[in-house]
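Homework help board

Subject: predicted structure for assignment chain

Our instructor gave us this sequence and asked us to write out the predicted structure in token form, then describe one feature. I got the tokens but I'm not sure how to describe them. Can anyone check?
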Amino acid sequence: MDLAIPPHTLLLPIDPGLWPPPSGPVRVDDTVYAPKRELHVTLIGSRLGSELNATFATAFLHEEITRAMAAREWRCERTGRLVELAYPSCTAGITNCQAPSRRSVIELIDLPAMRGFHQTLGALLGRQLPVPPPHVTLYTAHDPGGIGLASPLQLRTRRLRALRPEAMQHPG
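My token output:
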């Protein structure tokens, strides 16, 4: 864990023995999604990580995050709730952008520790932080990095629809 190094994120890896990554691409309507090679939960996204890194000394931040992580049980449970997300690839104000929207298929998970962890981070910063919707990105299209979800509002605004597993076709 080193929030001092870009992209300033903290990830919780998913054991592939417990939840293997998808084995191949899927098609949803006209979009082909590539599988993620490794699965993880983003605990601290790049914006929050950059702010924490700019606000606190590295050693202090490392100690506080280590303490906050150790105080919680980081057990997640799958829900089977799949969501298709989309986010514009072009910067606001660009009118002639032809790039397709970035897309992801995620599974929402139960991760009770996320709320308390972000409350602790918020206390460090002196404000209440939104709790990112706990999820695992399974597939991406038009950008292998996926789509960040730092708040419930971002989940609502980037959500295309709930997906049923049968909506995902395996090409080939």
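Reply (TA_rk): Your tokens look well-formed. For the description, you could write something like this. The mean pLDDT is 93. That's the kind of observation they're looking for.
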